[in-house]
Design goal:
Length: 118
């Protein structure tokens, strides 16, 4: 039995074959595995170490960003509200790839997909 690749969009492991295509039953994405591998190799070499915001703009250390969605904070009674401006970000490795200080919350790590460059 062959091992099927996970979905490139949602990373679901429940993919299946449909002719020449692979299909994800969770997000309904369809892709050709040969083409997807070529695309992922190109993007991984081109985007190596780069961090992008929700609009696809590349972020740099020291940038200012704006939160685009209310974000709940563990241990806090209120969320970080959409529209909050965060100055002087630092890029980090990992899932939460932005380190910053938010007024009223202190030091915190954010995911770049929930911010846009100011």
């Amino acid at each position: 039995m062959s091992v099927l690749p996970p979905c490139p969009l949602c990373h679901s492991i429940y993919t299946y074959e449909n002719g020449n295509l692979m299909v994800c039953p969770e997000c309904f994405y369809e892709w050709n595995p040969e083409e997807q591998q070529a695309v992922s190799e190109e993007t991984s070499s081109a985007d190596n170490g780069k961090v992008f915001d929700a609009n696809g703009n590349e972020l740099q250390n020291g940038d200012a960003v704006i939160v685009i969605k209310d974000l709940p904070v563990k241990g806090a009674s209120k969320p970080v509200k959409a529209g909050t401006k965060v100055k002087n970000i630092r890029l980090a490795e990992g899932d939460h790839n932005i380190d910053c200080k938010i007024e009223g919350f202190g030091s915190m790590a954010l995911k770049s997909e929930f911010v846009r460059r100011a």
